[in-house]
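TL;DR need structure tokens for one chain.
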Amino acid sequence: RRVRNYHLIGEGRALKRRGYTAYVTALPNGANPIQGMRMDEWGSTRDLYVVVGGQIRRLNGSAWDNVTGGVTVATGQDTHIRWTNFTDGNNNWLVGNDGSNVPFLVRNGQNALTLTQVSPGPLPWAVSADMPTDICEFHGYLLALNRYSLYYTAYGTLDFSTGGIIDTQRRSLGVGLAQHSRDIVLVFFEKGVYAMQFNPNEGSGFRVIPIEGAEGCVSKDSIVTRDGYTYWASHRGIYRIGDPARGVELDAVALAVV
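>> reply
TL;DR here they are.
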């Protein structure tokens, strides 16, 4: 006999797939597509945030509170939010970035704020085209990659004005960031990939080196880190990297697809 929607759990045994149930019945913002979702966890506090239809919503029991405040968030199903956590010594923040507006920050019990409102100094970006495409926390620094450069704050703060800038290259545009391991962040451009290492004992706190043979990345949404490897989509297929010193490889999944 044939059965459907069952798992085989042993010889002659099957377990019914139960499907799924709604976590909460209420929609965050009607039929608008969800652009990003993140669970913010600090100690025993857990807050679920979604970005949808230009609004930032936080789950409160069975309802979604609008905590957008004065923040501007791009709309549309093709605009996806990138998230990172950051502690500035006073507050634990969840930082969100849509790639075309000033990044926003949220925390338990408050409405969202823009990075401009929270940062003690001016931001290095003035127009929408120069806004960060991606953000990432790394060893107490907030990193922000825009079209050409990688910026970082002063240690333990949200102040980019007293931080620094790393001009990795200007042959192609910045795409995304990935914390590959405890001491390495991968920096993706359209035509190359760089490994950024935490290096506090040799002058500058960071060392950025190009990864030989690495094809550039076509979309930050394709970047995934899991089990010691980081995967991304290039124009030639799906690549992965384990140890940056050993270069990259075309992933077996991509070879199978091709």
